[in-house]
Design a protein that fits this description.
2 copies of one chain form a homodimer.
Chain A: E1 10-14, E2 27-42, H1 50-56, E3 61-73, H2 79-96, E4 104-111, H3 118-130, H4 136-145, E5 154-162, E6 165-174, E7 187-192, H5 198-211, E8 216-217, E9 227-232, H6 243-266, E10 274-282, H7 285-296, H8 299-306, H9 312-320, E11 332-335, E12 338-342, E13 345-346, H10 351-359, E14 363-369, E15 375-382, H11 386-392
Parallel strand pairs in A: 3-4, 7-9, 8-15, 10-14
Antiparallel strand pairs in A: 1-2, 2-3, 2-9, 5-6, 6-7, 10-15, 11-12, 11-14, 12-13
Chain lengths: 397, 397
């Protein structure tokens, strides 16, 4: 995939010194010299990190020029000093590119409860500002700079024709653990050269989130730092999008966010399968999403997929405790195209064939059907592997 | 511990042939020749097993004489045929001890979605009825007959003086996986020779459950088969308990249920730690329980304890997404007596010392303190180990 970076932004990712390995980027800087409209969606955790409170107070905005991100330290549960450090990080980044500190946003991700190493933050800001670019290499360096336990960088790009102009959209995100809606534990930045008002930017971002980043989990633990930003430079030209033009942009943004969001459980810590859960026949979308999320967060379902075990009773019983009323005699289940359960009763199937179908594919598709209505839901999660446990039993020690 | 079995009951556990290993009991029969008052508490899963529906329709009752339990097959998600099999199992067990089939209750536990092997059920009922006893050995055989993936049998006994008489209480339960309130995935039977009306039996059982079996989890997956029965033979003599006598019995029953319930996460599949979570300073008990349960069900908290990793950010952040409002600046955390977090900020501590304190004890005590009120909550869970994943990735295949 080649990425065309939206006009109006320059960026870079560098090693400032927070991560131990000198080849790993840990500081990302994005600069929008003419100012961008900015919107944000944040964790709903009561215990939120300093940069979440900081950005929340500054978005939506009509004039954001700098986004500074560090990985390797979440600046969460760090009290008053954490908030001062966050403010100083915004000042350092803005100063490095000659902007007013009031126009900067900050994101942090990594270990909780450790104070930010401000000398390394300062170093990162200085180094990153030295060679900002609008090319694909700069974009990918920026995407690597926000990674923590990720095995691969996560990016997406789209072009969409709106109101006679080509609008570019490019996004990056990180996240592999502590992932549970709303929001998943992750940082994500969507850049576009579309012209958007702050209100429209906030509205389209929220709608896209509900279909994407709020439909994924790894282990369902909601993070302290989740942040999704949309920056719109307006460099594609024209008046701020409205009506059907805004709707066309909304569709492209949602589509891009879904592609980006799925990369997170696909890279779930230790994961060997990306599990997609499709729910049909519910009374409301909320009901369908609630069932999808409950199935996704069942450790028994996730371990069964890891073991390629067609233990469908775990899937059906998880639906049963989702808190959504339904007729058990109307339930059906199809896994990777194999029907295992129909009208509330088992369908005879060859366990070896279904097990092989799970084992041989990176994606496992679970389709649960109900007879309550016509609403549907979707959710994505990772399987639960011994590698997840090994990894998480020994994170800080 | 020596167990004095309440008067009025005889029992046994035998190998009927459902389990592959001939030395493992898989059928338990309890007989109360003069009839017992019976109460039940059941899974809230919409997808419930045949015996759950069967028992639910027969309790509370003033005249239950037979309880038949099989392990190795849950008779869940088995449709119409499953309900017929359940009825037939009740008939076989009642006939084996010369009772009317209307006085029998049934419990099943094991794999979901496989029809009951009725020849083996018939064999179990016949063999068990041949030598029923009121002694400790018979009670322990009965307790083994309900086990599935349990590493050890789970029993409890109490004596309490009420209204000038000694009342005996003895209980057994099983459960090690698919454990999430309400109820935990488990079967439990409490026997007593106290005289109780059906209404009083149901009331004390419900109250005891809320303090015990509804306060435990292994992985939070609510089962299709959870059943807790209380049988009261009245053999201790006297009128049905009321007022302060009933309250004294209630206290003993709750205490016994808590001791029994804790044995389940202590035997959680692959578990190396029993985690006890204590919450103080909330506005209501419901709020405290909601926070306790959310912390208990965090895979990140459970893996941290498995790895003896004092990663307190995971505990505090789990509380933050419990859905209960609180002031983050008032939160404190103590793990195994070591203060790690106070008034919303980290307390310096020696990571090696705290890690050693977790590693060296089977029990990990997590105490989270809030400043909202005076309500408290308690919850027990197991840690999350690679052995849990290994075990559950390969259960049916």
């Amino acid at each position: 995939m080649s990425i065309e970076v939206p006009a109006g932004f320059v960026m870079n990712g560098v090693h400032g010194g927070i991560k131990k390995v000198a080849t790993k980027e840990d500081f990302t800087l994005i600069h929008c010299p003419k100012g961008a409209t900015a919107a944000g969606v944040y964790t709903q955790n009561l215990v939120f990190a300093a940069p979440v409170g900081f950005d929340r107070s500054r978005t939506p905005s009509a004039n954001i020029r700098v986004v500074a991100v560090n990985s390797g330290n979440a600046n969460a549960c760090t009290g008053e000093r954490g908030m001062n450090d966050c403010r100083e990080m915004a000042r350092l980044a803005a100063t490095a590119v000659g902007e007013n500190e009031q126009t900067a946003l900050v994101m942090s991700t990594g270990v909780i409860g450790v104070f930010l190493p401000m000398d390394k933050i300062a170093n990162g800001a200085k180094l990153a500002a030295e060679k900002l670019g609008n090319d694909e290499a700069s974009f990918l360096a920026a995407a690597r700079g926000i990674m923590t336990t990720d095995q691969f960088h996560k990016v997406v790009a789209r072009q969409v024709n709106v109101a006679g102009r080509t609008i570019r959209l490019a996004g990056m995100c990180k996240g592999a653990g502590m992932i549970g809606p709303h929001m998943a534990t992750m940082l994500a930045i969507m850049l576009t050269d579309a012209p958007l008002t702050p209100a429209a930017a906030q509205q389209v971002l929220k709608a896209a989130t509900d279909e994407s980043f709020n439909c994924i989990s790894v282990e369902g633990h909601m993070s302290t730092n989740d942040t999704l930003l949309l920056l719109a430079s307006g460099a594609a030209g024209g008046e701020p999008l409205t009506g059907s033009d805004l709707a066309a942009f909304q569709a492209a943004l949602t589509d891009a966010c879904i592609e980006l969001a799925q990369q997170i459980p696909d890279d779930g810590e230790g994961a060997s399968h990306l599990i997609g859960i499709e729910i049909t026949g519910c009374q409301t979308r909320d009901a369908a999403q609630q069932i999808a999320k409950t199935v996704a967060n069942s450790a028994l379902v996730k371990t069964a997929v890891a073991g390629a075990d067609p233990n469908w009773g775990r899937i059906v019983s998880a639906a049963g405790y989702a808190g959504v009323p339904f007729n058990p005699d109307g339930v059906g289940l199809i896994v990777n195209g194999h029907e295992l359960y129909r009208a509330g009763a088992p369908v005879p199937f060859d366990a070896k064939t279904v097990s092989a179908a799970i084992k041989s594919e990176r994606k496992t598709h679970i389709k649960l059907t109900f007879t309550e209505g016509s609403a549907v839901g979707r959710f994505w999660t990772s399987d639960l592997n011994v590698n997840y446990v090994r990894f998480n039993a020994d994170y800080t020690t």
